[in-house]
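Example (one chain per record):
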Amino acid sequence: MCFSSRAPYSYGWIMMKQNNNTAAAIPIFALVLLAANLRPALTSVGPLLDEIRQGTGISVTSAGLLSSLPLFAFACFSPLAQFGRRLGLERTLVVSMLVLIAGTLLRSYGSVPALFGGTIMLGAGIAVANVLIPGVIKRDYPSRVQSTTTLYAMVLGLSSAIASGLAVPLADWLPGGWRAALAAWAIPAVIALLAWLRPALRTSGEKNIVRVPRTSVWRSSLAWKITAFMGLQSMAFYIIISWFPVILQDTGYSAENAGFLITLFQLISLVVGISIPPLLKLATDQRLFVFFASLLMSASLVALILIPSLAYLWILLMGLGSGVCFVLALAFIGLRSSDHYRAASLSVMTQSIGYLVAAMGPVAFGVLHDVAHNWTVPLMAVVVVTLFQALFGLAAGRNRTV
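Predicted structure:
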């Protein structure tokens, strides 16, 4: 197992500067470059999954495992962020980028071991960065946490959508097909690495850390409900990203159109993610938002099964529901925490366990397809996931704190 029933490490430490020297703050463009490299290596796989299967001879179940491996890596390798204590936050992020680049290149080598090994490596690099970036924002932009975090989330969503949309065209344009299309994402990662080298060289590790008391949330029922909601909405999202291009192609859509639909799904989620925060201020809690957004996903999935010819409409509605649920999953970490120490602990809990739950989705989806020999059964399973997501969302949406 990647972790026990208790947190394996103390996450009560928060990386913060001893003084607010804004001149030494990480430039916004460096944050943007780093954020832009945390999703393309993941979302570029789905549209190419059919080509990868044909090129390597892996089964549908193995293809589902390939889609889930980065999520398992998120769950298993997030604790490695603790090495930031000794290396310094910036240096740890540089190491994570090096691992991401190496994994991206290894994955595109072509052999099945390299495909899976490289995927684990890049997942490990992304996992560490996922945990540490909020610390950079809190440390360097304490008066602009909300706006900087919104920018960070927007770049994540935009880069994710662009990668999905470009996956098939890159495979068509570049010599090497899907291998070259996957390897191409090492280029922007190298650019981001170069942007972080200077900040990393001026960091000395331990002196940039302020230790704070431990704060455990692992015995809180509310924390577990938030984690369950995070895991279920992430599971639904990654199943859609990983498998819907294949499903759409099987129902008659071209690879290009299938990739476009998944890009549309992510763009709609991004637009909703930007527009929903002001609306949240008008409500005393978030129960209705999360409940109806989850049900919208359920209804859209059922509609896709019954009327696949209107996939554009159903994908649009799924994007609306998914976007609301994603924003709320992130917002619950802050809204349901009594202080920022608990928020840090809750963030790690939701990312480790939540991503472990999410990782089971694409694998289970592939297994169900292999057993049932159709897409209806696994799609109905996702409907059940979104219904449970709605129930846990109701519990997490109540106005109370951990």
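Caption: The radius of gyration is 20 Å.
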